Amino acid sequence: MYRRITMLVAALLAAAPGSAFAQGREIAGKVTAAEGGAPITEAIITQFGQPLGVRTNAAGEYRIRVPAGEVTLLVRAIGFKRQTAKVTGGTQDFVLDKDVLQLEGVTVTGQATTLDKRNASTAIATVTADELIKAPAKSLEGNLAGKVAGAQIFENSGVPGGGMQIQIRGATSINASGDPLYVVDGVIVSNASVAGGLASISRSSGSTSSSQDQVVNRLADLNPNDIESIEVLKSAAASAIYGSRATNGVVVITTKKGRAGQTRYNVTQRVGTQQATRLVGSRHFKDYATVKPWIGSSAQADSIAQANCNPSPCKWYDWQSGIYGVEDPAFETILSASGGINNTRFYASLNDRQNKGVELNTGARRTSGRINLDQSIGDKLSISGGIDVTHNFTQNGVGNNDNSGISPTYALGYAPAIYDLRQIDPTTGRLIKMVMNGGGSGTSNPFDVLTAITNNEDTWRQTANLRVGYTLLSSAQNTLQVTYLGGVDRYQLEGTQYSPGYLQFEPADGFLGTAQVLNADSRFINQAVNAVWTYSPKWKFWNSAQTSFGGTYETQKLNQYNIRSRGLLPTRLVPATSSTDNTFGNTITETRDQSVYLNEQMIFLDEKLAIAAGVRADRSSANGDREQYYTFPKFSASYRFVNPLRMLTSKIDEIKARASFGRAGNRPNFGVRDVTIASGGIIGGLGSLVASGVLGNPSIRPEVMNELEVGLDGSAFNQRVGFEASHYERVIKDLLVSFPLPQSSGLSSQTINGGQMSTRGFEASLTLVPISRRNLEWSFRTTFQANVQNVDQLRVPSFAVGGSFGSSYGRNRIALGTRPTMIWGNLRYSCVNTTDASGKLVVGTGADGKPCRRLAPNEVVANSVTRDSMIADANPRQQTQFLNTVTWGRWNLSVLLDWRNGGYTSDMTKNIWDEGGNSRDYDAASPDPAKTLGQWRYASFSGGNISTYIDDGSYVKLREITITYDAPRRWADFARAREMRLSFQARNLAMWSKYWSFDPEFNNFGNSNFNRFIDLGPYPPSKQFFFSVDLGY
Amino acid sequence: MAVVAAATVACSAKDLNVTNPNVASVGGATADPTALQLLATGLLADYRGQTTSLMSPTGILGRESYNFTPQEGRNTTHYLIGIQVGGVQKLDPSGFATGPWSGPYGMMRDIYNFKNTIAGSTTLTAAQKAAALGMAQTFEGACILIIVSAHDALGGPTEIKDDATQLAPFVSRDSLYKFVLGSLDAGATNLQNGGSAFPFTLHAGFNGFNTPATFLQFNRALKARAAAYYATAEGGAGAWQQVLSALQASFLNAGATTRAQFDVGPTQIYSTATGDATNGFSVATNTNLYAHMSFQTDVQKKASGANDDRYTAKIRTGLPSRQGPVTTDGPTSASSTLGFAMYPVSTTPIPIIRNEELILLRAEARLATGDKAGAIADINQVRVNSGGLAPTTVTTASSTDDILTALLYEKRYSLMLEGMRWIDMRRYGRLNQLPLDVASGPNKNFVATVFPITQTECLVRVGKTGDNILGPNGTNSCAP
What we know:
heterodimer, A: mainly beta, 22-stranded antiparallel β-barrel, 5-stranded mixed sheet, B: mainly alpha
C-alpha cells in the first residue's frame, strides 16, 4: 500500500512541468563531530548556492540528489562550523568542528527568506535555546536580560508571573506603541498589557483599572522551554520587512521542531524557591518622644507607643520580612518528545510551572502544551504547523501606587513598626487593625489585606500556525518556491478583584466591599503569501541572487469589558445589581493591515560581497488615509575580508565590513483618525450631542524611522576571538504628538505628526575562548551598549509625557533640542525672573547679587524660585554584560553579570518613607547638622528641590548562575534513562547598587515608552533558586 | 507567482474599513433621525455651562462672591492679587482667573455643526429650518456676548473655521458687539419666519419661551442687554435706541409688582438624574461659595429699619468665618461670614435673563436718552416692589451720575451674582469704586478690568513653540 502511494506521488511529480530531477545522481555520506566523533543529526546538506537541501538522520547520514558532474556540497549544522567539499563520486563524509563563536546559522531577511550569518549586512542578535534557559525566569524577557546587545530589558516589579519590558535601541515613540513586534513561528502574537483592575480597590486612579495595577504583559504566556532560537531584528534595515509595525524592532521566535529518527523523550523536573532580594527596612525609633510625631492621631497608637517605647528604645517589628517572606517551593515540570519517521517530524511538549511570590498570597502557574508537525509530501510540497495551548494564572497581590492604604511598601512608610501586626483581635477573631497613620479607614494592616483580598488574572491562550510550501521549480540554477503562512493568536483574560467589606480601609469610599471582573478577548490573525526565486549562476563573481515577492494581511482585535460593584452584600464575591454602586465599561479596538513587498539579495565574489535591497508597502486601518500605501525601503551590503592581513599575520581570520540603511514605521494609535462626536450629558431628561474636544485627524500617518547602521565583525586566532561592533544613527520623524488647537476654535487638541527625535548609539561584543582543551573550555563574552537620544523638531509646545505624577515627582519632558530621557522636576534657583511691560522675559539676579544659579538642597537665599528643570538622565550611560562559561569534564559553570552605569530614577518610595518619618536611615547624619538625613531629604523636596529623590540607578546584577553536571552513564541507567543532567540554577542572585529602594528597573506605571523610572511602593524584587534533573530517553 | 500576485491583490482596501465602535463618528451621528433633537439639546447643555461660567468669575472680580475652596487658595489670590507685569497688577493668563473663553467657543463650534446639519437637512420644512436657525443665531449672539463681556477691549474671534487648526482672526470689541447684535437680529428674523413650533423640544427652563414666537421675546431681551453693553462702549446713542426698541418686543413687564412677575424669564435647569448636572451655586452643593461683606455694609434699610428684602432673601448670614490664604505677608482677602441663599437646593434653576433686569435695562436706556423721570419710575418700580424700600431720593433734578448710582444699587441687589456687577461697574468707569480687601502691601488687591486671553490661546496664536515665549508670567501679546 505504502509503496503504491509513493509510486503515485512519484508519477505525479514526474508528470509535473518543470521537474528538474530527470537527470542526475545521488551522493550519500555521514556527518560527524570532530570532538568525540558522535553523529550529527539535523545537519543540512545543500548544493552550494542553493537554498534547499536535505538533513541528516539520527545516525548522521544523508542522501542528496545532484546534477551530473562535479558539484560542491555545503554542510551546516547548528553549533558547528560549516564545511564545503567538491564531490565527483557517490559518497562524501564530513567531520565538523565546534562553532564556539556562533558564526554559523542564518539570519532572517524576509518573510520567507534567510541569509547566512557570515554574509549578514546588519547587526545580528541571536539567542539559542541553551543560552536562553540557563536559569528559569518569570517571563521570556527575563530569559533575554543581559543577552542582547542593544536591548534594554526592565522588570516592572517583583510580581511573580510577568510584567517586563524590552526596549530596543531606545524609545522610538512618545505616544504610539513602544513595544517590539513579537513573531512566533510566523505568527504575530499579542504582547498587550491589559490592566487587571487592582485600581478598583487601591483607587490608584479614578478608573476601575490602571497601568499602575502591576500589569502582566502577555509575553508571559509564552513557554521559553519550547523555544529553539530567538533573533532580535534591531536595525531598521532588518526590521523593515515588517514595515509599519517595526520601529521598535522585531523579536523573531522559532520554536523547537521535530528531529529525524527514533522518538526521544526528555523530562525535566525543577524544584526551587525564592527570596526577596531587597527590602527597604524601617526606622528604629529611639524613644517615645521620637516616635510620637509619626504615629498619627489615634489614641490607641499613642498608648501602644507609650507601652512599647518603655523602656526605650521602642520595640521594632520586622513587618516586611513577614509580608515578603514566602519561600514556599516552586516546581516546574517539562516533558517533551521529538521524533520523525519518513517525511513526518513532530515535537510535542507539556510544561507546568508553579511558584509562589515572596508576597503573602501571591503566585503564578503556567501550564502549556505544544505540538509542532512538519510533513513533506514528495519533493515539492511541505506543510508544517504548530498548536500551542496555555493556561496562565497569576495572583498578583498588592503593590505600587495606592490611595486606599493597602499597598504594603507604600502604606507602611507612614506606620512606625513598633507593635506586632500579626496579633489576633480577640473580639473580631481577625488580625488587629493598623492604628498608626491615623488608624482609620485611610490605612490598613497589610497582613490582613493580603490574606483577604483577591487580585487574580486568569488567561487561556491558543496559538496556531500553518505553513505550506510548494516548490514550483528546482534546477541546478533556479528554484522557485511559493509559501502560504497563516497564524492565529487568541487569548481570553479574566481579571478578578475582590475586597470584602469588613476590611479596615473599605468604609473610606463610602461603600463596603468591592468586586470587579474584567474580561479581555484578544484575537490576532495574520496571513502571508510569498514567492521566492533563487538563481545560482555558478559564476565566480556572482554566486547567487534571491528574489522574493509577497504580501501580508493582518488583523488584531481586542475586546475588553468589565463590571465593578461597590457596596456588596456580604454574600457576594462577584459584582451584582444588589450592590449599591455599579459601573461597567466596554472598549473594542481593531486594526487591520495589508502589505506587499519585494526583496532582492545577491551574493558576489566567492561569497564575499553580499548586497540586499527591498521595499515593503503598507496600508492600515489605523492611518488617516486607509488606501494610501507607505513604503519602507532597505538597502544593505557587507564585504568579508578573509585573512585580511595575510602579508603580516595569519592570525586574523576574517573581518567583515557592513553598512545598511532602512526605514521602519509605527502605526498611529487606534481611533486617532476618527472625527467623533461626544455626549454632552443630560439636561431636562434629554440626551445631547456635542463636538468632541479632541479632533480626529483624517490625515494622520505612521511614524517613520530612518536608520543608518555601520559595523565591523571579525574573528581571529582561528576563531578563538570574535568581535562585533555597530554604530547606528536613527531619526524618527512624524512623531505622533498632541497639538493644542486654538481654544477659540471650540476644540482642544488634535494628534498630529509633529515631531522628530534622533538616537545614536553603539553596540559591541567581544568573545574570547582563552582555553579550549579536550577537557577544559573557558569562554568569555562581553557585550556593551550605549545610546543618546535627542528631540530634533517639535511642532507643539514642550510637554510633560503623560503617565507620571508631575513636577514634584519627576517625569520626562519633550522639549526641543533636549534629551527626551531627561528627568525634569522642581529645582530651586537663586533669583526671580520678571517680565517687562512688553512681556519680555527679564532674567533676574539673586538677592545676593550673584547671577542666577541652582540652589543646593535646603540652601536658603532671598528671592528664590522653584522651576521645572532638567535634573538627570534616566537613560544609562552604558550597559555592559559579562558572560563566563567554563566546561570542565562533565561540569559546566556559567555566570552572567549585568552592569548598568547611570540611569537615574525617581525614588518615590524613599520619599514616602521620609514623609512618614520612617525610613531606615532617617536618623543618619546629613550635610546639614541641624537636620537628620530623612529630614534633610524631605525638607528639600517640600521646599521645591526634588533632587534628593532623583537617584542614580547604577547597578551590577548577578543575573544568572548555572552549574550543570552531566551525570555518568550508570547514574542515567539507574533512572533507566539514556542521559541525565543535574543542574543548580539561580536568577537575580544579587544586586550591588547604592540605590535606596528596591530596583532601578522598576516602574510604577508598567510598560511605557518614557517615564519608566518611577519607583512607588512596588512589589519587591526576588531571587530564585532551582535544582533541576534532566532525563533523556 | 500568479497565485501570490492574485492573493495579494485580492485584499482590497475595503477590508481595512474598520468601524470604531467606542465613539460615534460625526457623520454617523448626524445621520441618525434623533440627531436634530440631540444636537439642539447639546446647545442647551452647552448654554447651561456658559451662563454660570460668567457668574462665578465675574462675581469674584465684582466683589460679590468668593470661592474659598480649602487647599486651593489660588481661587482667591489669582483673582484679587494676580501677578505683577512691568510693575502693573494683571490676571495671570495661565492661572485660575482667565474667565470664560474655551467654553463659549466650544458652544460656537456646536452651533456651527448644528447650523450645517440644519442646512443639509432634507426633511425639515423651510419654516422649521428658519426656527432652528433662529435659535442657533440667538445662541451665537449669547456666546460672543459672554466673550466680549469678559474680555472687553481685548477683542476676540467670532468665526468658527471648518478646519479647527486654522486661526480665526481676532476682531475688535466694536466688531464683537456688531456681531452679537447682528446675530441676534438675524435670529429674530428667522424666528419670525419660524412657524408655530421648533422641530425639537426645548427643556422646561424655556417653558413660555419654547415656540419661535415666544423664543423671539427671549432673543429681544438678550438684544436689549447686548445693546446696552454696546451703548456704553462704541455704540452710543444709536445703541440706546436699540435697547428701547428691543425691550418692546421682549417679555418686559414694566408694571411687575410681585416676585413671580419680576422672575419671569427662561432659566437653566438642573436635576440629580444620572448624567445630568446639579446647581453648582446651591447652598446644598457648594460650601465654598461666600458673599462679599460689602453687601451687608452697603445694604439700604426699609422704613421699618429692616434690610432691603432682596438682601434678606438672597444673603445667608452667620456662616463660619472663612477667608483666602494667609501668606507670610498677611491675609490675601477679607474674611466673610456671608453666603448666598438664592439656590436652596441642588436643583434650583438659575435665571438666564429676568424681567427685573429688563426693567432696569429700560431705566438705563431712559437715563442715557435723557428721560430721567422714566428712569426714576423704573428704578422705583423695582426698588419698592422687589426691595420693599421707600422710593429713591433721587429726582429729575438730580445729576445723571447720581441717578446712575441709584440705578446701580438696584442692579447690584436685584441681580445679585447674576454676572452683572463687575461688567456694569466697568461700563460706567466705576471699577475704582469696588472695595479692595487688602489695600496695600505685597498682597495688595486690585480690580482687573478684563480677563486675559488664555496662555493656551496665546501660544497657538503667536505660532511659536517651546517655553518662555511669553516669559513665565506671560502677557497678552496675542491681542491685536
